[in-house]
Amino acid sequence: MRTRAALVAVGTLLIGYAVVGALADPDLRPTGVLLFLAGVVAGHDLVWMAVLLAVGALLARWVPERHRPVVRAGVISAATVTVVAVPLVLGFGRPPDDPSVLPLPYGRHLAIVLLLIAGATLLTCWAADRRRSRRPAPAAPGGRPPRSALHRPGGEPLGQEALPEGVHDHHGDADQQ
Fold first, then answer.
1. 102, 91 in Cβ contact below 8 A?
2. How far apart (Å, rounded) are the C-alpha atoms in residues 56 and 52?
3. Predicted model pTM
4. Per-residue confidence at 163, pLDDT binned at 50, 70, 90?
5. Does pLDDT of 81 surpass 50?
6. C-alpha–C-alpha distance, residues 132 and 128, integer Å
7. pLDDT class for 176, splitting at 50, 70, 90?
8. Are 68 and 60 in contact (CB under 8 A)?
9. Distance from first CA to last CA of the chain, Å, rounded?
10. How confident is the model at residue 79 (pLDDT cuts 50, 70, 90)?
11. Which of 2, 25, 106, 123 has the fewest CB atoms within 10 Å, i.e. the most exposed one?
């Protein structure tokens, strides 16, 4: 709680410093500043938040729950890299008469980085699934293994000889012990 209060105090001081500095500037155009701030708020709340909520809804619908944190981190990383790289990819600030300014193929490099992020995300999800499939199934209440442990991977029941000592599988019979 003290950390939050300190951060709020520092943020308030910095905003106050910026406002005093802006008001002391003789070239300040308050209408332009307010218009800019309104555009930033509208862009954030109307565009960015709408996109963020739509992507979150798609993730919740199409990504299994066990993979959501990893996929979410991958999507956030890809979005961050893209936002930073878009001005370079589009060539903002590149004068036509000086080819040494922004000389690299930024679009190709962005695609490579995004593919690396996607690959790392997929590899992490795959590794988690592999670890998960190697772990033994937890025992059900009463010491009996879960029903899935009593069947082969294809769904075929295991023979009685393969069951643990003292476990009987009656395949749903009412006279279970």
1. yes
2. 6
3. 0.58
4. low
5. yes
6. 6
7. very low
8. yes
9. 55
10. very high
11. 2
